[in-house]
Recover the amino acids of this structure.
């Protein structure tokens, strides 16, 4: 038989390259993983043999991920840059996948025609589209493709025992191992084991005349015959798996993953979390869902029975948390470490040949005949069209998912940030990007500067990160309370990691940056706001590093590419022969096993129809539920939910459409009213949960109590709102609320003030700043400081004053000691302090000692996270003394002091007060710092309250504050002995600058109040301005 | 057999016996004399050491050791009569003692020391520091000027080198002579009583330093006085009252630094301590706040906390609104309040706060509602969802006037 070029395969390759090859340029960079691989590639491009990478997590080893793909990109980057390398490798992966699918199908079916179908199906398989274009898992795709190629060789080795096949299969497996570790590990179990079974089965089949005659006895005998081949290959495979990436296993042993597992969508219950169901079940399976019965029918035939078992197992494991079976099978630990989507990926890849066979039978085989005879030709064409259309729809849907529901923030121009980091030694400190998404990896790849964050969560090293289920600090708002909590720890004690610069692409984080004492530096031309923190020392010249033996470095640097070279060398002859058909090759033995396909079982056809109907009903029901839940005005519950959703996403015109039309509030008026309300809830909050209680519902009216929980960067806000709902023309509406009518007396308002500017360097030079350009640190004085215990928690409280003549930025750090002078804890003041002080301004402060949350991972995590983000440090011993170190640095921003306390009244509900903004900047989030004093005007406690609405210019804002009960408070130590200012003893400063301090002033500014455990209190105001003008 | 063993053993013994060490042949070291006699040199001048030997020496070396480091030199000219070592520039430029050793095969033939003096005449450079960058006016603060004069090769000049220090404050320029000690000279420039800027410079051997400055900031403020002003003295809750200090100065009459924070504490007749904040410009602090919305007397006192306070100023607000009507309708659920008329019978500006507290008939607090006036009136509707039908005590307070009603909600409007 003359061998002809398989036109379908050529067609698949052309279409595949054209389609995927052009699409990757629009998708790959916004996938989850691709840029991470790019960062690793950059590491190899710069230091091939040294595995230590300083730029993430204060240093980690790249031996924590198999290197082949990264090294390939790294090498190719010398030709046309990193991105060129990435696209080149992606193109190679596409070709390998299509040809791999072809060879795998050929092996399974023995028909070149069906194998051609397999190649075409591979191009349009939604699971491949998702893995490449949404997840960007280049190593996984490459490894899987090579594994598919290797399967034919493995089969032939088992079957024929020719050394040639042993060598080819081993070389290909080595390449697989060095590209991705999980693929061969599980591939052994799920692909290679059934493949060996099938090879033995085929050998056994040759001994008897029919499958019927193939008994277990025959099979067992054949297995024993082939045992040494299997053992030889199995041993080699294990050896390759261990040897080729030995440094990886070495590193896993040395740095075991002890971190808290990160929740992953693939472990969700897909019926509950429908978005996870869509991404991890519906999309990868796609049209295959309808043909599942055929897959099982075919895979549980005698020849394929081992694949059948494997396929069933993969299908079940891929369902994640929907059924309890995966958890039972994998066990608690494995279930929480593995991402289960890979099982679905393998299941769908495994199904490809059978799907190709189905397509062949449908298009030109016996199934076509059967359907045409049973239902007629039109039905066959319609059905075929539906299946093809369904496939195309899934591909387009998957491909555009990232476009309609972006998983990443808009593309950020990195050049201004890279330039900023490179200029003026800014890279002597660490930086932190916020709101960058996976693009942070691309920033890291372009700059030599270091960050405390990172994007490869298995390598996380900092305890602040590993003890919490957060993958990055950068997107901490999506991780709720623990994310924000972790971020706050980095922001409060940035000195610990020499963190000085923050690039903020999300204004959500701005308030917490301000209240932790950070200041805006400048807005870069790409719109990224740079924040900086004063008083942070640069990174030391010598940094810790975990070294590995030289032999590991050499192995890691040389083996991966060598495996590729060997594989190409060994296989080149075959590739050449196969491509050009230059030499007549003997047919492989599996080619004889092509089935005649002359009788499609009618019962299966009927069953498949019922199954398809069932799937359709399920889908339809799902869509109906989705519709009912999402039609805004169908029920009182829906309208309230939609209204809050619209507010949360700032879709004000949508929100307006839910308001009662008879209230006659036109859209322009509504937008105006919304636009003038500023504050933490309207500008910096994410709606976290919404509890709607509908009561007094009648035919046309209802009342709703809405309990909302908002995640703000500062703390959680709980709100209760009441709404009246009405039904008009079958639609429910919300009654609108009253707005504040207050108008200021003046139209134009003038204000004078002192502004400050610091040159930094007066002379433009790359040298260190000149001595005369270094500003003197403003002198502070600590007026009082105490170690107190309140509600079982230790805090250091106190009051300090900027006694200098320039504005000061204040950093204050307290250390607790026990009686034996053993250090117990150390922390900075977070937001219970005014960080920026004008000359002679005072502020009270409180330092809470925050421990790293759940610091031992063995602790069971609270099932629902405590709304209080605070994790007090657990003291083994009683703290009795403290040391207070404060440092002033010249401040020149955020010095707005024009919010006055205009009225204060005590009622049964607490203090009702009025704030008045007498200046010309809009205060977005006002903060009250409330200090409590005893009868001698000695400070007892400091509390704070964020007011959820802003204070507009020349307007009032009301607040309510319930004073605390302090009768249980215990003052442990109130000595000013170990208190230091800019490294000097506080007493010396006080004696020199304020020898005749009028102590009485403190008392004269406090509010007498007969409270529980205190006699006086004071309200101080700290104002965050969202948009300084 | 035995003989053989004895033989072998004796052979071994002979082999192990101590071998006579070869005695070192007596080395006769040549006699070398220093020809050039350098005891003193000046930094930067070429120095060479010349020796004379009685025999030819092949591997003679000179070791030089001074503050720059240590080096082994080979002779430039190596004749019997004339062995010349040229000392490298790096070594001759460093002032201080310089030790040398003449060596042959690790054996010291001769050694000596000579001094290199600083080269003050060639050129003098001045390294100067001045800090802190700012001081406080008065008698107990100072900035220190530190001068380290060096020669052209960065050698500090000899102790006792005279340095002229000049400093200028306002019209005065003072000049004085100090001397270096332990390689540098220093002078404490004392703070002045007036605030301003002190410029200093230093001169040594005709070379001047750069200009250095310290700023004399004013001392802590002393007591001052304040005044209040407003467009009118009615409590309309809308106008703005301004508090202003006179020029705040320190004990020496200097105006306090711009930006000094002054807290104006207001004590009202309800004993509430309110405040507003101003920062000084040219010594004057100005702070603003809103008129109260009911008659009040305010006692205002300002503080520069810890340092100074002002007199207590009083401001009395007269009631702008004498009374307001309340009208119930729609089963007492709709409450119209107003019109609110101000001191000239004009409608008050929008935004007057009205608060409604609702108590049940046992006097227990149920709920409260707030609203603001618009066009002089305001309206509260107690929807059914908000308040169940029944008898309630309604307390309306606005502009300091509280009115109480007992109403049957959903009852008869007309009483």
């Amino acid at each position: 038989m003359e061998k002809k070029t398989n036109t379908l395969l050529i067609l698949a390759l052309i279409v595949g390259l054209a389609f995927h090859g052009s699409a990757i340029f629009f998708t790959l960079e916004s996938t989850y993983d691709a840029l991470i691989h790019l960062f690793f590639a950059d590491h190899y491009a710069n230091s091939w043999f040294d595995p230590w990478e300083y730029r993430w997590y204060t240093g980690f080893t790249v031996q924590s991920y198999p290197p082949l793909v990264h090294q390939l990109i790294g090498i190719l980057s010398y030709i046309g840059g990193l991105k060129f390398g990435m696209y080149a490798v992606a193109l190679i992966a596409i070709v390998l996948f299509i040809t791999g699918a072809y060879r795998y199908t050929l092996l399974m079916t023995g028909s070149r025609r069906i194998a051609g179908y397999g190649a075409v199906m591979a191009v349009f398989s939604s699971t491949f589209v998702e893995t490449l274009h949404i997840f960007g898992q280049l190593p996984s795709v490459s490894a899987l493709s090579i594994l598919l190629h290797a399967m034919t060789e493995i089969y032939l080795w088992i079957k024929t025992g020719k050394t040639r096949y042993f060598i080819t299969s081993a070389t290909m497996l080595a390449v697989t191992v060095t590209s991705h570790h999980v693929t061969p590990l599980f591939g052994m179990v799920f692909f290679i084991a059934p493949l060996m079974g099938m090879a033995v089965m085929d050998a056994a089949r040759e001994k008897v005349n029919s499958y019927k005659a193939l008994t277990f006895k025959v099979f067992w005998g054949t297995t024993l015959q082939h045992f040494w081949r299997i053992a030889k290959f199995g041993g080699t495979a294990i050896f390759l798996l261990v040897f080729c990436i030995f440094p990886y296993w070495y590193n896993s042993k040395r740095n075991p993953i002890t971190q808290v597992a990160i929740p992953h969508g693939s472990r969700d219950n897909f019926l509950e979390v429908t978005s996870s169901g869509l991404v991890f079940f519906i999309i990868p399976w796609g049209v295959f869902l309808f043909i599942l019965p055929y897959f099982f029918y075919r895979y549980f035939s005698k020849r394929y029975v081992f694949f059948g078992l494997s396929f069933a197992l993969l299908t079940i494991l891929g369902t994640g948390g929907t059924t309890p079976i995966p958890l039972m099978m994998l066990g608690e630990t494995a279930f929480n470490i593995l991402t289960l989507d890979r099982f679905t990926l393998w299941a769908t890849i495994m199904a490809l040949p059978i799907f190709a066979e189905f397509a062949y039978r449908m298009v030109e085989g016996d199934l076509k005949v059967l359907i045409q005879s049973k239902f007629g030709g039109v039905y066959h064409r319609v059905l075929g069209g539906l299946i093809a259309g369904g496939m195309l729809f899934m591909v387009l849907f998957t491909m555009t998912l990232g476009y309609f529901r972006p998983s990443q923030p808009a593309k950020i121009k990195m050049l201004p940030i890279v330039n900023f980091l490179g200029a003026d030694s800014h890279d002597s400190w660490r930086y932190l990007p916020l709101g960058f998404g996976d693009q942070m990896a691309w920033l890291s790849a372009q700059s030599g500067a270091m960050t405390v964050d990172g994007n490869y969560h298995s390598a996380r090293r900092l305890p602040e990160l590993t003890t919490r289920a957060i993958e990055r600090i950068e997107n901490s708002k999506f991780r709720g309370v623990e994310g924000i909590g972790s971020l706050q720890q980095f922001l409060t004690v940035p000195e610990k990691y020499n963190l000085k610069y923050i690039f903020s692409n999300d204004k959500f984080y701005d308030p917490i940056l301000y209240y932790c004492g950070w200041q805006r530096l400048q807005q870069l031309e790409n719109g990224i706001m740079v924040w900086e923190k004063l008083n942070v020392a640069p990174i030391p010249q010598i940094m810790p590093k975990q070294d590995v033996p030289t032999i590991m470095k050499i192995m890691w640097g040389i083996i991966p590419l060598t495996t590729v070279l060997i594989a190409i060398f060994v296989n080149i002859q075959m590739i050449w022969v196969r491509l050009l058909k230059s030499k007549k090759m003997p047919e492989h033995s599996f080619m004889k096993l092509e089935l005649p396909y002359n009788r499609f079982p009618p019962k299966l056809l009927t069953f498949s129809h019922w199954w398809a109907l069932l799937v359709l009903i399920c889908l339809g029901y799902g869509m109906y539920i989705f519709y009912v839940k999402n039609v805004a005005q169908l029920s009182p519950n829906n309208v309230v939910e939609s209204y809050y959703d619209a507010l949360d996403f700032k879709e004000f015109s949508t929100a307006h459409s839910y308001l009662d039309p008879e209230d006659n509030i036109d859209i322009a008026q509504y937008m105006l009213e919304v636009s003038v309300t500023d504050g933490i809830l309207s500008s910096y909050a994410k709606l976290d949960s919404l509890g709607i209680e509908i009561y007094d519902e009648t035919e046309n009216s209802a009342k709703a109590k809405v309990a909302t929980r908002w995640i703000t960067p500062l703390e959680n806000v709980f709100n209760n709102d009441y709404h009246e709902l009405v039904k008009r023309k079958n639609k429910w509406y919300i009654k609108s609320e009253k707005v504040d009518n207050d108008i200021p007396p003046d139209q134009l308002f003038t204000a004078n003030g002192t502004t400050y500017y610091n040159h930094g360097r007066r002379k433009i030079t790359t040298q260190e700043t000149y001595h005369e350009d270094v500003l003197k640190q403003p002198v502070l004085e600590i007026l009082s400081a105490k170690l107190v215990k309140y509600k079982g928690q230790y805090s250091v409280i106190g009051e300090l004053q900027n006694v200098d003549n320039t504005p000061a930025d204040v950093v204050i750090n307290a250390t607790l000691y026990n009686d034996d002078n053993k250090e117990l804890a150390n922390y900075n003041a977070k937001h219970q302090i005014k960080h920026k002080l004008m000359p002679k301004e005072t502020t009270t402060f409180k330092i809470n000692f925050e421990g790293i949350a759940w610091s031992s991972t063995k602790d069971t995590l609270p099932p629902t996270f405590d709304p209080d983000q605070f994790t007090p440090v657990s003291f083994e011993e009683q703290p009795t003394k403290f040391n207070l170190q404060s440092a002033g640095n010249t401040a020149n921003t955020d010095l707005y002091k024009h919010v006055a306390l205009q009225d204060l009244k005590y009622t049964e509900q607490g203090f009702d007060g009025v704030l008045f903004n007498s200046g010309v900047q809009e205060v977005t989030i006002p903060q009250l710092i409330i200090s409590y004093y005893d009868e001698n005007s000695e400070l007892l406690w400091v509390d704070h309250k964020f007011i959820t609405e802003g204070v507009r210019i020349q307007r009032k804002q009301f607040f309510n504050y319930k004073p605390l009960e302090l009768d249980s408070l215990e003052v442990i130590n109130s000595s000013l002995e170990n208190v230091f200012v800019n490294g000097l003893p506080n007493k010396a400063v006080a004696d020199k600058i304020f020898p005749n301090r009028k102590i009485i002033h403190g008392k004269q500014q406090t509010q007498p109040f007969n409270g529980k455990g205190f006699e006086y209190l004071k309200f101080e105001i700290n104002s965050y301005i969202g948009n300084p003008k | 057999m035995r003989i053989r063993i004895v033989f072998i053993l004796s052979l071994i013994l002979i082999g192990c016996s101590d071998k006579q060490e070869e005695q070192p042949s007596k080395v006769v070291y040549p006699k070398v004399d220093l020809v050039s006699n350098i005891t003193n040199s000046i930094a930067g001048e070429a120095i060479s050491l010349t020796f004379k030997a009685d025999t030819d020496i092949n591997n003679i070396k000179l070791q030089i050791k001074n503050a720059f480091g240590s080096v082994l030199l080979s002779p430039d000219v190596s004749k019997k009569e004339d062995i010349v070592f040229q000392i490298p520039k790096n070594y001759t430029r460093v002032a201080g003692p310089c030790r040398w050793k003449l060596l042959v095969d690790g054996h010291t033939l001769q050694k000596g020391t000579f001094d290199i003096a600083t080269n003050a005449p060639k050129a003098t450079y001045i390294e100067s520091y001045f800090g802190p960058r700012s001081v406080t006016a008065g008698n107990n603060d100072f900035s220190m000027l530190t001068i380290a004069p060096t020669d052209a090769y960065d050698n500090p000049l000899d102790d006792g080198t005279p340095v002229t220090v000049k400093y200028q404050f306002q019209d005065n320029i003072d000049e004085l002579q100090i001397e270096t000690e332990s390689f540098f000279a220093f002078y404490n420039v004392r703070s002045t009583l007036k605030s301003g800027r002190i410029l200093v410079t230093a001169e040594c051997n005709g070379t001047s330093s750069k200009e250095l400055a310290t700023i004399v900031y004013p001392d802590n403020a002393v007591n001052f006085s304040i005044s209040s002003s407003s467009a009118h003295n009615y409590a309309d809750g809308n106008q703005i009252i301004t508090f202003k200090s006179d020029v705040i100065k320190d004990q020496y009459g200097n105006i306090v630094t711009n930006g000094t924070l002054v807290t104006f504490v207001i004590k009202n007749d309800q004993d509430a301590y309110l405040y507003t904040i101003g920062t000084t410009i040219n010594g004057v602090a100005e702070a603003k706040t809103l008129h109260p919305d009911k008659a009040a007397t305010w006692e205002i006192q300002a503080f520069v906390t810890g340092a100074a306070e002002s007199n207590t100023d009083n401001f009395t607000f007269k009631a702008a609104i004498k009374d307001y009507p309340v009208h119930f309708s729609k089963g007492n659920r709709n409450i119209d309040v107003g019109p609110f008329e101000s001191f000239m019978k004009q409608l008050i500006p929008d935004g007057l706060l009205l608060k409604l507290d609702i108590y049940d008939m046992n006097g227990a607090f149920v709920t409260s509602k707030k609203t603001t006036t618009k066009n002089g009136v305001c309206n509260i509707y107690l929807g059914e969802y908000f308040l169940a039908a029944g008898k309630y005590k309604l307390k309306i307070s606005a502009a300091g006037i509280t009115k109480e009603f007992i109403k049957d909600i959903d009852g008869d409007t007309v009483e």
